[in-house]
Amino acid sequence: MKQILFIFSLVFLLNCASSNAGLATSNIPIINKKYKVIAVVDKERTWRAFDIGIIGVAYSVPPINEMVKDALSENEADALINIKYWQDRRIFLFLTWHRLHINAEAVKFEEEVQNVPNKKTR
């Protein structure tokens, strides 16, 4: 029984989790542009890092730009709007697992037809 309690307490002491979240209106400025929502985007990516106290080394670059590019290309969209994101990290001894999740709407800009006056020749 003592061994089981020791193992559970060890897991709780070695595993630490924290998270943050946020909102963004869009990934590019879309002021005064007409658009149509074409899809809902729901993506998640992970990456790892090696941490000792205040010194940390990531094994790879966080895949944030890749997620946005993938979401735009998969849906053939021009922009993402109403972006909700959260990130959490789990720490086991000296390894940290980061997870980033985004939820957004993919939009396509509508072409603006400009009226060109007809010149009538007489």
Task: Tell me the domain tally.
Answer: 1
Overall, the morphology is elongated
Please provide the ordered H/E string of secondary-structure elements: HEEEHEE
Query: How does the major sheet shape up?
Result: 5 strands, antiparallel
CATH architecture: 2-Layer Sandwich
Determine the CATH topology.
Translation Initiation Factor IF3
Helix content: 10-25%
Topology, number of strands: 5
End-to-end Cα distance: 103 Å
Unreliable stretches, pLDDT < 50, 5 or more residues? none
What value does the average pLDDT take?
83
Strand order in the sheet with the most strands: 1-4-5-2-3
What proportion strand? Answer: over 45%
- Structural class determined from secondary elements: alpha+beta
Number of separate helices: 2
Radius of gyration: 23 Å
In the CATH scheme, the class would be Alpha Beta
Put the structure in a nutshell.
With 122 residues, the chain is α+β, with helices and mostly antiparallel strands.
